[in-house]
Design goal:
This protein has 13 helices and no strands. The chain is an all-alpha fold and 289 residues long. Helix content is 85%, strand content 0%. It folds into two domains: 1-112, no CATH class; 145-258, Receptor-associated Protein (Up-down Bundle). The chain crosses the membrane at residues 5-26, 88-109, 115-136, 266-286. Keywords: Cell membrane, Membrane, Transmembrane, Transmembrane helix. One of its GO terms (cellular component) is plasma membrane. InterPro entries: T2SS_GspF_dom. Residues 157-284 form the Type II secretion system protein GspF domain.
């Protein structure tokens, strides 16, 4: 009887998915085409987006989804954060549907084993949670990269301003002479330079840079420039040198922390290697005895 129930549930999930897929059609085709290279399970995105809109998940679960949106703002900026949030929630729903279908399918193949059902349901709830945790890790890695790159940018600005360049020209040179145009800080500075080229106010451009990065040290950097760039000369240079010294110390601390994390990750492989060596060495002795 249980096997029949699991079979009916599995068939029902598949049928509902195909019915919704046919009903949705090409409604979300443009959005999916724009984000198809950024998120997995995009073949299920149309159904997931339809579920989001139909059940009004973005509005009803705003308290929980706003946390995801804050991370998207940090990763992608205010302009596209909302759409990235919708696509990420759609990815969570698609993953949950795949896990749920797999749970009932494997339970059916195991002739109704309740252990597989319980483990599968736990897995269905844990995977989206792990994905959200991974998003927080990506945000932290981005901030660490920005903090790691910022001291070099500040040093370049100090050298260029000392050589007679303005702050605006120094920022442009930092972007055009970089060795890694795909770094998060350089991407933000490139956008800043494009805004300056469009004749947007300099103070507004730097304020946008501070908000977009979402890093305290960037806010200190932009505030330091705004307070001193009109004066120029030694005041700006001294302020930037003091800031540079603090940023290099923070970069050292980040490198030290990452080194400690890397060494701690090696502990478990070493334990497994030790156990394997003990088995290899000890097994012949035990068999002889």
């Amino acid at each position: 009887m249980q096997v029949i129930v699991y079979g009916i549930v599995t068939l029902l999930i598949i049928c509902v998915y195909f019915v919704l897929s046919i009903k949705v059609g090409s409604r979300y085709e443009v959005v999916i085409a724009e984000y198809k290279d950024r998120y997995p399970l995009m073949f299920m995105a149309s159904v997931s987006l339809y579920i989001i809109d139909g059940l009004k998940i973005m509005e009803r679960l705003y308290g929980q989804i706003s946390k995801i949106q804050q991370k998207m703002i940090s990763l992608y900026g205010n302009r596209t954060a909302l759409q990235h949030t919708r696509m990420y929630v759609a990815q969570l729903i698609s993953t949950a549907l795949v896990c749920l279908l797999g749970t009932f399918l494997f339970t059916l193949l195991s002739e109704g084993d309740p252990t597989i059902l319980v483990v599968g349901l736990l897995f269905t709830f844990m995977v989206p949670y792990a994905m959200i945790s991974r998003l927080a890790t990506q945000e932290k890695e981005r901030k660490d990269k920005i903090l790691t790159e910022l001291p070099e940018v500040v040093n370049k600005i100090i050298l260029l301003v000392n050589a007679g360049e303005t702050v605006q020209q120094a920022l442009i040179r930092c972007v055009t002479t970089t060795n890694d145009p795909n770094s998060p800080l350089i991407r933000e500075l490139s956008e800043t330079v494009n805004k300056m080229a469009s004749n947007e106010p300099f103070h507004q451009v730097l304020n946008d840079l501070s908000k977009k990065c979402g890093v305290q040290e960037i806010s200190i950097f932009t505030t330091t420039i705004l307070l001193n760039y009109r004066k120029g000369g030694n005041d700006l240079i001294l302020a930037l040198r003091e800031l540079s010294h603090e940023l290099w110390e923070k970069r050292k601390n980040i490198s030290k922390t990452k080194g400690e994390e890397a060494s701690s990750k090696l502990v478990f492989p070493l334990i497994f290697i030790f156990v394997a060596v003990m088995i290899i060495v000890g097994y012949p002795a035990i068999t002889i005895m």
